[in-house]
Each structure stands twice: as structure tokens, then as C-alpha cells.
């Protein structure tokens, strides 16, 4: 029986992780769940999965929940409890399902304990990829991707050596604006940007998919996860989102992993790796899909993807600056304070303003994140 801690159980990855766990009651047990504020949903999850511990980041919401659940489970509150849970509770697999930079600190604690890290939180590798992968080696902690593209590559690389890789080909749906002209971006509304053609996800990642920043973050994530240089990572637009990514080998052969756009599959693979378990998820009906198409990404139109390649080249804390600036800019766009086209503008300003520290330690990364957020918050 594997004990699972889910960091971020109310989001789309967290809910899907519980959907997977529900299918395998003899394999998995929920050790702990955490949420930011969604105690209504957490209460239902406690009823069904009986975790010993839960953490609510928002103090007031946590106290409210504690009154409701009584002695059914221990309710911890506050941001530091997320870190304490990862550092102190009894579990085997850490599922990093929360969005954003705040997923990093708890993941570091889990790594230091040599846990299996099933990682959906790409920011952990974007901002601190070198440090995180080094720590995983030191503490024999295994990092298994949940991000669908990286899960695809991980599956394609089973039985292959790193030396035999010619390049990784990460697929992108292209988001809702794949076919739009750049001038259309000027007046894009929040609703249009949130209307993703294939995937149902949280708001932050859906906006990142509309700007293609999500793909940029995934290029950086792949660089660290697979130890591959950036000039060997390509992005190709594949609007059907059935091929989740590919690996091209030095003999010219390409391996791909296919499936419906449903996160349950990569989540199950990460939880059961190296085994594959039978499930009743909907199967891919290829004749029904009919045809696949592929396009080069337009870096002029989707500036955020170009910026991600640029910060990967620069190294140091540049990816951390890009990530923090993007998180704040997306938040501002979602609250209708800035235009869609301002997102890359804000990131560029932050990259110009905030100093890039080469070979940063973890404190430098936290400082850089804070400085960038403060700076971008003042822009208007
Ligand atoms: Mg992805």
C-alpha cells in the first residue's frame, strides 16, 4: 500500500489524482491533502478518502474547517504547514499538484527525504531545475513527471539511453489563438483566453496555454528533467492534442506517446511506475479523430515562448525572473487590470530590471522571486 500526499488537492491535477486513487483502493491510501482555500471540496475529500492530516493554507478557512470536521482528521493551517507536512508526515509519494512558485519549498522537503516526487508543478523545475535535480541525485529521490508532455517523453525513453537522443519534440495544442493574427491579441478578453480548445485546466495554466508560455515553461522543465541541452528541444504545434510528445533518436527514428487529452493517464503512470495497470478510462478512437496536423510555432506572434528559450540560454536566475513576472502578469490579466499583450511586455521589463545571479543557491532563488514580484506589482 502506497501512502500519497497531494499538495493541492482541490485543483484539476489534485482532483484527477484522487480520481485515479479511487480506482485502486488496494494500492493507494491518501495520507494527507492540502488546499489553499477550497474547504468545501476538501471536506468532501476527507469524507471519501479519510486522510490523517489536511493542510489549509488560508488560516481563517482552516479554522472554519477544523470546527466542521472535529476529530475526523488533523487540520493544520498556514503556508508554513505545507512545508511542515512535506517535511514531517508519513507518506511514500509526494504529488506536487499545486500551481506556481509556492510548490517549490514543499517539494524540496520531500526530495530531502528521498520520496518519490510525482511532479505536475512545473515551476519547481523552471525556477530551480539544476538545484532540484542535483538534490534528487544526492537524496536518491525519484522525479516522475505528471505534465502530459513530459510523461510522454518519459515513456518514450524507457529502455533508451540519453546518448541516443537526438532531440525532444514537445507538442503544443496552440491554444485558442493558434489561427488568429497577432493584431487580434490587442483586444483579447479574459473569457476568450480561458476558452482552451482541448484541455480543461485551472485559470493560470489556461492563460499560459493561450500565450504559449506554458510551452516555454515546459521546454525549461524538459531541459532539467531529462538533462537535455536546449538546442535539442523543439516545440511543434499539434492542434488535436493526441500525440503528447515525441523523442527523435540519433538513427532518425521517432517515438511518440498518444492518448486522449486526459490528465488521469499521466497521473496513473506516475503513481504506478514502472508498472502499467488496467483501467476503464476512455480509449483513443483513431479513425474518429481522422487526421493529425503539425505546424511550426510562430515565435513572433507568441513572444512568451521565445522569451522562455532566451532565459534558458541566459541561465542563472533568469528563468526564475521570467516565471515570477509571468505569474504576476497573468494574475493582473485575469483580474482585468492589464491587456493580454502586456504579459510579455511585463516579463521583458522584469528581465531588464532584475539582476541575473549565475549559479544561485536556494535563498538567492527565493530572493529573486520576491524582488521580481514586488517590481512587477508596481508596473502599470
Ligand atoms: Mg503540459
Question: How would you sum up this structure, described in words?
Answer:
The protein has helices spanning 12-23, 39-49, 59-69, 79-88, 104-112, 123-138, 148-156, 190-193, 203-211, 213-225, 264-272, 286-289, 303-314, 318-334, 342-353, 362-378, and strands spanning 2-7, 28-35, 53-56, 74-77, 93-96, 116-119, 143-145, 165-172, 233-237, 243-249, 254-258. With 380 residues, the protein is α/β, with parallel strands linked by helices. It has three domains: 2-145, NAD(P)-binding Rossmann-like Domain (Rossmann fold, 3-Layer(aba) Sandwich), CATH 3.40.50.720; 151-261 and 283-300, no CATH class; 315-380, RNA polymerase sigma factor, region 2, helix turn helix motif (Rna Polymerase Sigma Factor, Chain: A, Orthogonal Bundle). It has a seven-stranded parallel beta sheet, with helices on both faces. Strands 9-8-10-11 form a four-stranded mixed beta sheet, with helices on one face. α1 (12-23) crosses α11, α4 (79-88) runs parallel beside α5 and α14 packs antiparallel against α15. The longest helix has 17 residues, at 318-334. The N and C termini lie far apart (52 Å). The mean pLDDT is 96. Magnesium ion binds at residues 147-149, 218. Magnesium ion (MG) is lined by residues 147-149, 218.
Question: Which properties best describe this structure?
Answer:
380 residues; Rossmann fold; Rna Polymerase Sigma Factor, Chain: A; binds magnesium ion
Please state how the strands of the largest beta sheet are arranged side by side: 4-3-2-1-5-6-7
How many E strands?
A: 11
Residues in helices, as a percent range: 40-55%
Beta-strand residue fraction: 15-25%
Uncertain regions: pLDDT < 50 for 5+ in a row?
Answer: none
Quickly give the CATH architecture of the largest domain.
Answer: 3-Layer(aba) Sandwich
What would you call the structural class? Answer: alpha/beta
The separation of the N and C termini measures 52 Å
Our Rg estimate from Cα atoms comes to 20 Å
Q: Return the CATH class of the largest domain.
A: Alpha Beta
Biggest sheet details: 7 strands, parallel
The name CATH uses for the topology of the largest domain is Rossmann fold
Mean pLDDT: 96
Gross morphology is: globular
Would you identify the CATH H-level superfamily of the largest domain?
A: NAD(P)-binding Rossmann-like Domain
Order of helices and strands: EHEHEHEHEHEHEHEHHHEEEHHHHHH
Bound molecules: magnesium ion
Discrete helix count: 16
Amino acid at each position: 500500500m502506497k501512502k500519497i500526499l497531494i499538495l493541492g488537492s482541490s485543483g484539476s491535477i489534485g482532483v484527477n489524482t484522487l480520481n485515479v486513487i479511487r480506482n485502486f483502493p488496494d494500492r493507494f491510501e491518501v495520507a494527507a491533502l492540502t488546499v489553499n482555500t477550497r474547504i468545501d471540496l476538501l471536506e468532501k475529500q476527507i469524507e471519501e478518502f479519510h486522510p490523517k492530516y489536511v493542510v489549509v493554507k488560508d488560516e481563517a478557512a482552516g479554522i472554519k474547517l477544523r470546527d466542521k470536521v472535529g476529530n475526523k482528521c488533523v487540520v493544520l493551517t498556514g503556508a508554513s504547514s505545507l512545508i511542515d507536512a512535506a517535511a514531517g508526515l508519513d507518506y511514500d509519494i509526494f504529488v506536487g499538484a499545486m500551481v506556481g512558485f509556492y510548490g517549490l519549498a514543499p517539494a524540496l522537503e520531500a526530495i530531502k527525504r528521498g520520496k518519490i516526487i510525482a511532479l505536475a508543478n512545473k515551476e519547481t523545475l523552471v525556477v530551480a531545475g539544476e538545484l532540484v535535480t542535483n538534490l534528487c541525485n544526492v537524496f536518491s529521490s525519484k522525479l516522475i513527471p505528471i505534465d502530459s508532455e513530459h510523461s510522454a517523453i518519459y515513456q518514450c525513453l524507457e529502455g533508451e539511453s540519453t546518448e541516443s537522443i537526438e532531440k525532444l519534440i514537445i507538442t503544443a495544442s496552440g491554444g485558442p489563438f493558434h489561427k488568429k493574427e497577432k493584431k487580434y491579441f490587442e483586444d483579447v478578453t479574459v473569457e476568450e483566453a480561458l476558452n482552451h480548445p482541448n484541455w480543461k485546466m485551472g485559470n493560470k495554466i489556461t492563460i499560459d496555454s493561450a500565450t504559449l508560455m506554458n510551452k516555454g515553461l515546459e521546454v525549461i522543465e524538459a531541459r532539467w528533467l531529462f538533462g537535455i541541452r536546449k538546442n535539442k528541444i523543439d516545440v511543434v504545434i499539434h492542434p488535436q492534442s493526441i500525440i503528447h510528445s515525441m523523442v527523435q533518436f540519433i538513427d532518425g527514428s521517432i517515438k511518440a506517446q498518444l492518448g486522449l487529452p486526459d490528465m488521469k493517464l499521466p497521473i496513473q503512470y506516475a503513481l504506478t511506475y514502472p508498472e502499467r495497470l488496467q483501467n476503464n478510462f476512455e480509449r483513443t478512437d483513431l479513425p474518429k479523430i481522422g487526421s493529425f496536423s503539425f505546424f511550426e510555432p510562430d515565435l513572433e506572434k507568441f513572444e512568451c515562448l521565445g522569451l522562455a528559450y532566451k532565459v534558458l540560454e541566459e541561465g542563472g536566475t533568469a528563468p526564475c525572473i521570467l516565471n515570477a513576472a509571468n505569474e504576476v502578469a497573468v494574475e493582473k490579466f485575469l483580474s482585468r487590470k492589464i491587456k493580454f499583450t502586456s504579459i510579455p511586455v511585463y516579463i521583458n521589463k522584469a528581465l531588464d530590471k532584475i539582476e541575473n545571479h549565475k549559479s544561485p543557491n536556494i535563498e538567492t532563488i527565493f530572493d529573486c522571486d520576491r524582488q521580481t514580484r514586488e517590481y512587477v506589482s508596481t508596473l502599470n
